[in-house]
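user: can you give me the structure for this one chain? tokens are fine.
assistant: on it. calling the predictor now.
[tool input]
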Amino acid sequence: MKKAISTLLLAFVFFSAKAAKIDTIQVFSASMNKSIKTCVITPDNYKKSNTKFPVVYLLHGFSGNYATWVKSFKEVGKQVDQYGFIVIGVDGNYSSWYFDSPIDTAFKYETYVVNELVPFVDKNYKTTASREGRAISGLSMGGHGALYLSFKHQDVFGAAGSMSGGVDIRPFPENWDIKKRLGSITEFPENWEKNTVTNMLDLVKDNKLKLIIDCGVDDFFMDVNRELHNKMLALKINHDYIERPGKHNIEYWENSLKFQLLFFDNFFRDNKNK
């Protein structure tokens, strides 16, 4: 009996030792003159391997932060081990919407992610430092942010996703601090028009980006996601589009992340085999 217990304990130690590593680091943003917390999840084989690892950048929603992906997503560590890539939990300062605010110079999150965070990660981690080795996704505000950043910076990101994304911000002029970033829609309509994803599709008509977009049918962003999907179809923009039962909540996003990470893994594998 003692031998059996010892064997079980050894097995437990062995399997629990095999786990993704989660670190919180500080990344200095010269554009905003501050250090920003960032979550880095590396797979179990990261230290032992001499290979380069692809990277998935994940953007939280309104009122979230860099730690959203480890605090609320129970399976993310196992998923990082399963697929063998690095995941970066980006901090968007509660309500940045991940663009450079035209009215508030304290919010330059497009510059931060593209010009500061990505180069920092590539310098300090064993990454596949090219668009073929980078993907970006997010939920809600982060879904809009992931598409926004990838549309504008296709030299940086090769694949992108949106989970329950606020892909058209114009129907929500009083919500989620958007007017603090863009000004009111009545005073500054041009800011709203040029910074909403649904108006940026001309940037992706060449089909260089691999795209996956999904939304729950009971989500308040369902209509704007369907509208974006139909516009993309009309423009012949290749993308995976999924509607599933679900609301704007963690239960939906935990399920959604499984599909998105599989999509990105296929993207990375396809490029690796070329």
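assistant: here you go. The beta strands are 21-29, 34-42, 55-59, 86-90, 134-138, 159-163, 210-216, 240-244. The longest helix spans residues 250-272.
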